[in-house]
Specification:
This protein is an alpha/beta fold and about 375 residues long. It folds into 2 domains: about 200 residues, 2-enoyl-CoA Hydratase, Chain A, domain 1; about 170 residues, 2-enoyl-CoA Hydratase, Chain A, domain 1 (Alpha-Beta Complex). Helix content is about 50%, strand content about 10%. Strand 2, helix 1 and strand 3 form a beta-alpha-beta unit. Helix 1 runs parallel beside helix 3 and helix 3 runs parallel beside helix 4. It is globular, with a radius of gyration of 20 Å.
């Protein structure tokens, strides 16, 4: 049985090394399992401190996907064994995942994520934290949690708030799929390269004169990646988000959440991308919609570590409440695509229920992520 993550080091011409980590589960589209996290965290921590490692590359096996999300089926089984109750394994998984994401965000050394193919949920959580985030002509990125009764976690509270005005709210609410140009426009990616150029790019990394000064190594990597991007730009797809920016701002204007949702779903426009986004919101979980809206409002002034602490509380509550369980059942287990949501509309949701989600089950000192960022 192959390792869930394959680790290797490449020797550079000047003696420095490149650490390469490959998520190795093509059958699951490299979905981020607990075993993967358990392998990644200690190895990345070692590479972070190893003076011989100049930079790190994180990628997915195969051509279809970097990482299509978290190990949702396993989380479903944990919720099934703890119906309506706190599930320790849910807390354990998300705690480890957010620690891994935070490590990547704060890695210091150049850290490349090759975001080829499908990048969703947990995959985006890893990619967005990297210093050098690559998208290709096949990249398909989304945070479609509203369709499974969850919310955009893995730092979404932080990075959705960093997007151009209203884009984060729109993408979080609709789970809309975006391409490479969209990812660059919204700040989720840095560089566009053609997928076929990857092997050439990796070979060129070996010839760079890496040193011991982290800032200079970042500059050297930037220069090389800009060269590749200039050769690839002719094949950049059209950005759906940029093309619809004025419309997105219009439908998300105002302070009443129910009015915003109504404006999005009732807007009459002939645009396949926008229409798919409308459909996802219309059929998604009303509770998830409220979680998205409030997480972004509350998260505007939070640090990255504080965002992860907020999200861990929300994720544990999602594992307990039942909406997440029902969403996964309908989409991935029974595959009837007919979830029985607790509320049929945004307007019907009891605000006290949302208050419960945002009430932490831990004191500040007891929080599993209390030491994050300290």
């Amino acid at each position: 049985m192959s390792d869930v993550v394959i680790f290797e080091t490449l020797e550079c011409e000047n003696g420095k090394k490149i650490g390469i980590a490959t998520l190795n589960s093509e059958k699951s589209l490299n979905a981020l399992s607990g075993d993967m996290i358990d392998a990644l965290f200690p190895q990345l921590s070692l590479w972070k401190e190893d003076e011989n490692i100049a930079l790190v590359l994180l990628q997915g096996a195969g051509e279809k996907s970097f990482c299509a999300g978290g190990d949702i089926v396993k989380l479903y089984n944990e919720m099934k064994s703890h119906p309506g109750d706190y599930a320790p394994a849910i807390e354990d998984y998300f705690t480890k995942e957010y620690k891994l994401d935070y490590l990547i965000h704060t890695f210091n050394k150049p850290f490349i994520v090759w975001g080829n193919g499908i990048v969703m949920g947990g995959g985006l959580g890893m990619m967005v934290g990297a210093s050098h985030r690559v998208v290709t002509e096949t990249s398909r990125i989304a945070m479609p949690e509203i369709s499974i009764g969850l919310y955009p976690d893995v730092g979404g509270t932080y990075f959705l708030n960093k997007m151009p005005e209203s884009c984060g709210l729109f993408l979080g609410l609709t789970g809309a799929s975006i391409n490479a140009s969209d990812a660059k426009y919204t700040g989720l990616a840095d560089f566009f390269m053609l997928a076929e150029k990857k092997s050439v790019f990796v070979e060129q990394l070996k010839s760079v004169n890496w040193g011991n000064t982290v800032a200079l190594n970042h500059d050297k990597l930037n220069d090389l990646m800009h060269e590749h991007e200039l050769m690839s730009n002719a094949q950049l797809p059209v950005s759906h988000v940029r093309a619809n920016k004025a419309l997105i701002e219009h439908v998300t204007a105002g302070d009443d959440f129910a009015d915003i949702v109504n404006a999005i779903v009732t807007c009459e426009v002939e645009d396949k991308w926008f229409n798919r986004a409308q459909k996802s919101l219309k059929h998604g979980s009303a509770i998830s919609g409220h979680l998205v809206y409030r997480q972004l409002v509350q998260g505007k002034s939070l640090s990255l570590a504080e965002c992860f602490r907020l999200e861990l509380g929300l994720s544990v509550k999602c594992g307990q409440y039942g909406e997440f369980f029902e969403g996964v059942r309908a989409l991935l287990i029974d595959k009837d695509n007919n979830p029985s949501w607790k509320y049929s509309s945004i307007a019907e949701v009891d605000e006290e229920v949302i208050d419960w989600f945002f009430t932490s089950k831990w004191s500040a000192d007891e929080h599993p992520l209390a030491q994050l960022g300290k």
